[in-house]
Amino acid sequence: MKIRSRLLNKFAAKCTVGLLRMLFRTTRIRIHPMEARTVAYEPLDEKFLYPVWHDSLAFPLFCGPIHDMSTLVSQHRDGSLLAFAMESLGVAAVRGSSSRGGARAVRQLIDSAKQVHITITPDGPRGPKRELKSGIVFLASHMGRRIVPVGAAASRCWRLHGSWTDLVIPKPFSKVHFVTGKAITIPAKLSKDQLRDLTVIVEQQLHATQSCAERLANGLISSIDELLAEPPAMKQAA
Length: 238
Description:
The protein has helices at residues 6-25, 58-62, 78-88, 102-112, 135-143, 192-217, 224-228, 232-237, and strands spanning 28-33, 49-51, 69-73, 92-95, 117-120, 150-154, 157-161, 166-170, 175-180. By secondary structure, the protein is α/β, with parallel strands linked by helices. The strands form three sheets. The protein has a four-stranded parallel sheet with strand order 2-5-3-4, sandwiched between helices. Strands 1-9-6 form a three-stranded mixed sheet, covered by helices on one side. Strand 3 (69-73), helix 3 and strand 4 (92-95) form a beta-alpha-beta unit.
């Protein structure tokens, strides 16, 4: 059932945030940065763009204290609940999407990037699942910001089924692994061909980062050092 009341949306968002905070406090969280000074759970001088797959969005919000963060939230009515949840977490929500309010949202994001990091679900708001759209590469080019891929997984989890993707929630007392990949530099003034090629590269790196988190959660590797030491053929097979 969709909640149409603004007041009820706010109440539902606060309850959801409170429950997830309690849930994540029972988990054992490990942070695995592939590059130093790229995790926004500590104050950073450089501001980044953080892509995370839509189904893993809960993890970056609750795995640590958030510093100077903004995000893009759909203008659809369903986005109101998420926007209020972000507000409860101290994350500035810019309303817009590729189909509704997109140009205005991009301008707001470019302005806000001067002071804050930005987290984006690049396969949202309607999918396809884990297929990266070019928007984040376009934004990085115009903002002069580097992109840091984010992956996260839990040793035991629930999958809440949606219309086009799931939402992954860790089960109580599970192990959570939060991985950030190496920062990707995007040049300014991209051609269409460059935009397309770099979108493929960023998608590959985001898949690799998420795969790393899942392999850690499943006990296939014990640290990212093991993954980085693997021959290239083994990394591709993973």
